Amino acid sequence: MKFKLVSSLVSLVTTAVLTVATPAQADDSLNAVLAKKSIALGVASDFPPYGFMGPDFKLTGVDVATAQLIADKLGVKAEFVPVSTPNRIPYLQTKKIDLIVSALGKNPEREKVIDFTIAYAPFFQAVFGPKALNIKSFDDLAGKSIAVTRGTIQDDMLQKVAPPTLKIQRFEDDSTTVAAFISQQTQLLATGAAVAAAAVQKNPQVQAEYKLLLKDSPNFIGVRKGETALLTKVNEILRAAKADGTLEQYSQKWLGRGTGVLPE
Amino acid sequence: MIEFDFGVVLAQWPMLAHGLVLTVALTLASAVLGTALGIACAWARLHGGRALRSATSAYVEAVRNTPFIIQLFFIFFGLPSLGIRLSVEVACVLAMVLNLGAYACEIVRAGLQATPKGQLEAAMSLALTPWQTFSRVVLPPALARIWPALVSQIIIVMLGSAVCGQISAEELSQAANLISSRTFRSFESYILVTLVYLALAMALRQCLNWVGPRFIFTSR
Lengths: 264, 220
Prior knowledge:
The complex is a heterodimer. Chain A has helices spanning about 1-20, 30-35, 60-75, 90-95, 110-115, 155-160, 175-180, 195-200, 230-245, 245-255; strands spanning about 40-45, 45, 50-55, 60, 75-80, 100-105, 115-120, 125-130, 145-150, 165-170, 190, 210-215, 220-225. By secondary structure, chain A is an alpha/beta fold. Chain A folds into two domains: about 1-120 and about 220-255, D-Maltodextrin-Binding Protein, domain 2 (3-Layer(aba) Sandwich), CATH 3.40.190; about 125-215, D-Maltodextrin-Binding Protein, domain 2, CATH 3.40.190. In chain A, the strands form three sheets. Chain A has a five-stranded mixed beta sheet with strand order 5-1-6-13-7. In chain A, helix 6 links the parallel strand 9 and strand 10 (about 165-170). In chain A, helix 3 (about 60-75) crosses helix 9. The two termini of chain A are about 30 Å apart. In chain A, about 40% of the residues are buried. In chain B, helix 5 (about 90-115) crosses helix 7. Chain B is mainly α. Chain B is elongated and about 70 Å long. Chain B has a single domain, classed as MetI-like fold, CATH 1.10.3720.10. The longest helix of chain B is centred in the first third of the chain and has 35 residues, at about 15-45. Chain B has nine helices and no strands. At the A-B interface, strand 10 and helix 7 of A face helix 4 and helix 8 of B.
């Protein structure tokens, strides 16, 4: 509730400030990047498996790989700038970065202040469970138990689609929810892709895998408003990577699931 | 300007009623078992052998010096790694019984130790066995002495059951949490549940004060 209020306030203020402070952009970022031979890419550094610090202290993940791919195809050096969820759009607007590649979802509020490329990776809320458990549809959830964080999208979705005999056990935060599943107090887990990937990575003994999709909200790359040349170029790169299976390979590697149909 | 809307919150009353039932059930089960455990431990600390005495005091100190939520998490999340998997309700009752047992042990022990020496000598001169002395002569007046303190401790444990929602038990506070996250009316939800807890605690105190002298110990 509080968070909602704060975030809507932040986006309101951001929108207001940015519409006032940034008049029509000159469409020159692509040329600037090519001239400088380097592109500044805003990535998350604490959001596995999208953008996170690997064991070797190097940034890695789906976002980082995609960002690197774009830099490589442009033939320039990739300069990674760690961004947070609240500061990434202001960073883009103030030219601290050229692109946002940090699990960015598209919504009408954001479309007012920045432009979006085509989607490059899936982001999803899903049901996860051990390999031994055969779950093919929501009907298979009957009589099972599932851990979920109270009041999340997953909680709402489960309530709508799951059979009434599914025992939904609600916990207060993601870490307790994951703990319940890892300690096998529940048979299944409903959570976001990022949380599940981290949990599975740290607890290989539970042999958990992706089971059912609850909600899809894919990631897009953010571009400064009006930078059409750069936007077109990045879209070209992404379409080529989609066609030759590179994006599919990234998704399989880090998310354990294919990209599915990514919206244009 | 904040506007209150209790209607949407009250519309969720079945959830609240369900939570109330579970809170009362958890409290009753743990009050009975926890008090029994407390009496047994108090006896063990005073009359048990050396091993039993030190085992009991280790248990009492461990429980009284750690937070309830950690004890609960240990039972629910920790024990499965030893192969012991308990249902949510059993885990809650076990945690509450162990918690109340430790505090009740010290409360009851105080009552037992306050027994006048003359009564023990009288029991001995009547050739009562140690068990008869304990159960007939020492325990009932001891319970009568410490009853208000024990009732308070039971109420503290009842209020502490609010924490059980953390391991997904659908008790009263979990019901309030669910209602507030569904209706986005957190203030109304928590005000309502606060009043329910208040009423419940007062009713429980009245009830135990009535039950105690009539059934647990017979006052002179």
